[in-house]
């Protein structure tokens, strides 16, 4: 099942696509029109969320950002990512 959620932050849209199987995030894709530096951070975050139970995703994301103090995200913050994630977990869009 694919779960999709978006959040329009102050300066950019954040979109989560989560392929879920039996409560596990098999694949996570984070896209949108926001800026994050270093660029590879989004791929690292996606990998950090893959394989986790859906109810563990928010904490896993908080833990990821807590240790990565080198991340620059102009006009968006971790809360914006959490809102997009929660919207994805609430929404179910099968494709």
Protein model, in words:
This protein has 95 residues and is α+β, with helices and mostly antiparallel strands. It has one domain (2-90): Enolase-like, domain 1 (2-Layer Sandwich). Helices cover 35% and strands 28% of the residues. It contains three helices and three strands, in the order βββααα. It has helices at residues 41-49, 57-67, 78-90, and strands at 2-9, 12-21, 24-32. It has a three-stranded antiparallel sheet with strand order 1-2-3. α2 runs antiparallel to α3. It starts with a strand and ends in a 5-residue tail after the last helix.
Strand order of the largest sheet: 1-2-3
The topology string of helices and strands comes to EEEHHH
Ranges with pLDDT <50 over ≥5 residues? none
Give the CATH class.
Alpha Beta
Average pLDDT reading = 93
- Main sheet overview: 3 strands, antiparallel
Please state the structural category: alpha+beta
Short description:
With 95 residues, the chain is an alpha+beta fold. The chain has helices at residues 41-49, 57-67, 78-90; strands spanning 2-9, 12-21, 24-32. It contains 3 helices and 3 strands.
Defining traits:
single chain, 95 residues, Enolase-like, domain 1, three-stranded antiparallel β-sheet, 3 helices, globular
Give the secondary structure arrangement, pairings included.
Blueprint: E1 2-9, E2 12-21, E3 24-32, H1 41-49, H2 57-67, H3 78-90
Antiparallel strand pairs: 1-2, 2-3
């Amino acid at each position: 099942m694919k779960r999709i959620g978006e959040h329009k932050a102050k300066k950019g849209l954040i979109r989560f696509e989560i392929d879920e199987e039996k409560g596990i995030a098999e694949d996570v894709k984070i896209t949108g029109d926001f800026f994050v530096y270093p660029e590879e951070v989004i791929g690292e975050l996606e990998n950090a969320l893959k394989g986790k139970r859906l109810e563990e995703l928010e904490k896993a994301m908080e833990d990821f950002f807590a240790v990565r103090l080198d991340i620059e995200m102009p006009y968006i913050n971790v809360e914006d990512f959490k809102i997009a994630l929660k919207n994805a977990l609430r929404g179910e869009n099968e494709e």
